[in-house]
């Protein structure tokens, strides 16, 4: 028996040594990731840096140096915002970023003609950044542009409109945004608009209104990606049924991992697979971690309670909240949890369905290990350790988005050969008069 035990121990030890030898080193993993990012542009679906330019730098691109480290950049006099920024050119290059959808977000409180003007100003910020830094950034309007700019060592800069309220219920404005370079539009943002329901508002249309479906149709005809981040599950399903082209979720996670209303339910993921769309995993901590989501809700409730208890007594409110937060530590959120969302999307939707949509500079904090645009290789390395092949990492990084954009361009070419620009109005289809 003693001889058998020794033999078994020796065999186990030999197996452990063999396994350790077989496991790739960090350097080997990093080399694989670098090879993938050289061959395929990493395309992030959503970055809110243009709003930071507006908010922190008073819309001026000449008062800061985008080629410097902005991780500790304060606002200019008169500007707003606290803490450092998550984006700058050196970190974009270190992160292997080959394409970036810059969000031309505006708050849902800005509506009507003011929304159109503000959106155009945000588009102008993106173009001024590209003009100011031509060695590092280049405007991209097609999938071929992204590939070309990546080969040139520049970051392909694309434009995404982050809310349907930004078109002021006008298909003419939608077409104007496309002409200015916008290549996706999110159908709704934090609240319902006149034609689409938001994930974070009570349902108004139970999906899309008839005019909302016309908006999707015109986006297909133009070649503009339909973005379903921020919309309700009913709106997701309605848009997937209406769209002739692949849809995207520019910055959304998997609801099976964290039950936040901004995330995508499994039944919708299955529909996205049939649509050949792409779900681009978000890094917002409250969407990534269900524990953080619940903590955020508890913190908001306690803030409201303290405000009621200590009205007109800001110092007491501050002390009470500090005491509550000391007794209720904020749950940690990690890079590995983001990888869990990507794995769930892949499990239900398939590897041809996954992408990356950080929401950098639009979120108050980030998962540990993903604090800026230089950290994408660390996320790809985590998935490589989980067994992802180089081919599949390339699809996640940007291959799937390139394919979806190319297919959307092909659908637009076909529709433009058969259809004139839509002249539908919200008054005709929904009975809503502006």
Give a verbal description of the structure:
The protein has 434 residues and is of the alpha/beta class. Strands 1, 2, 3, 4, 5, 6, 7, 8 and 9 form a 9-stranded parallel beta sheet that branches. It has 2 domains: 25-287 and 333-430, Alpha-Beta Barrel (TIM Barrel); 290-331. It has helices spanning 2-22, 26-39, 49-57, 89-94, 112-132, 143-151, 171-180, 210-222, 233-242, 266-275, 285-288, 290-309, 314-327, 335-349, 376-385, 390-418, 426-430; strands at residues 42-47, 97-103, 137-139, 155-161, 182-186, 225-227, 247-249, 278-281, 354-356. Helix 9 (233-242) runs parallel beside helix 10 and helix 12 runs antiparallel to helix 13.
| CATH class wording of the largest domain | Alpha Beta
CATH homologous superfamily title of the largest domain: Metal-dependent hydrolases
Global structural class: alpha/beta
Task: Identify the overall geometry.
Answer: globular
Number of strands: 9
Topology:
Layout: H1 2-22, H2 26-39, E1 42-47, H3 49-57, H4 89-94, E2 97-103, H5 112-132, E3 137-139, H6 143-151, E4 155-161, H7 171-180, E5 182-186, H8 210-222, E6 225-227, H9 233-242, E7 247-249, H10 266-275, E8 278-281, H11 285-288, H12 290-309, H13 314-327, H14 335-349, E9 354-356, H15 376-385, H16 390-418, H17 426-430
Parallel strand pairs: 1-2, 2-4, 3-4, 4-5, 5-6, 6-7, 7-8, 8-9
């Amino acid at each position: 028996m003693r001889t058998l035990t020794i033999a078994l121990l020796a065999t186990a030890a030999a197996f452990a040594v063999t396994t350790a030898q077989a496991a790739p080193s960090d350097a080997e993993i990093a080399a694989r990731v670098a090879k993938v990012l050289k061959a395929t542009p990493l395309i992030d679906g959503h970055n809110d840096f243009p709003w930071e330019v507006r908010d922190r730098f008073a819309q001026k691109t000449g008062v800061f140096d985008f080629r410097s480290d902005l991780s500790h950049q304060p606002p200019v006099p008169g500007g707003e915002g606290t803490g450092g920024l998550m984006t700058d050119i050196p970190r974009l290059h270190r992160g292997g970023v080959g394409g970036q959808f810059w969000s031309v977000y505006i708050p849902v409180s800005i509506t009507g003609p003011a929304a159109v003007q503000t959106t155009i100003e945000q588009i102008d910020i993106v173009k001024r950044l590209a003009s100011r830094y031509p060695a590092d950034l280049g405007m991209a309007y097609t999938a071929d542009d992204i590939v070309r700019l990546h080969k040139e060592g520049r970051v392909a800069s694309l434009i995404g409109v982050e809310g349907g309220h930004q078109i002021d219920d006008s298909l003419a404005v939608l077409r104007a945004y496309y002409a200015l370079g916008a290549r996706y539009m999110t159908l709704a943002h934090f609240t319902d608009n006149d034609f689409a329901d938001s994930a974070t508002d009570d349902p108004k249309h139970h999906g899309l209104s008839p005019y909302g479906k016309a908006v999707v149709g015109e986006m297909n005809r133009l070649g503009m990606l339909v973005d379903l981040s921020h919309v309700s599950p009913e709106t997701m399903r309605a848009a997937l049924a209406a769209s002739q082209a692949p849809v995207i979720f520019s910055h959304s996670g998997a609801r099976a991992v964290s039950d936040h209303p901004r995330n995508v339910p499994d039944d919708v993921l299955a529909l996205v697979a049939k649509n050949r769309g792409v779900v681009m995993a978000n890094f917002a901590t409250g969407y990534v971690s269900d524990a953080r989501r619940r903590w955020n809700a508890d913190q908001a409730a306690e803030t409201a309670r303290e405000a009621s208890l200590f009205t007109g007594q800001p110092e007491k409110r501050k002390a009470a909240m500090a005491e509550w937060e000391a007794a209720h530590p904020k749950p940690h959120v990690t890079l590995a949890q983001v990888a869990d969302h990507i794995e769930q999307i892949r499990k239900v939707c398939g590897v041809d369905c996954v992408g990356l949509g950080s929401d950098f500079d639009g979120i108050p904090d980030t998962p540990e290990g993903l604090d800026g645009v230089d950290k994408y290789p660390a996320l790809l390395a985590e998935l490589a350790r989980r067994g992802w092949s180089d081919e599949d990492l390339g699809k996640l990084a940007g291959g799937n988005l390139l394919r979806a954009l190319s297919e959307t361009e092909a659908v637009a070419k076909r529709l433009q050969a058969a259809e004139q620009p839509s002249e539908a109005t919200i008054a005709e289809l929904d009975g809503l008069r502006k």
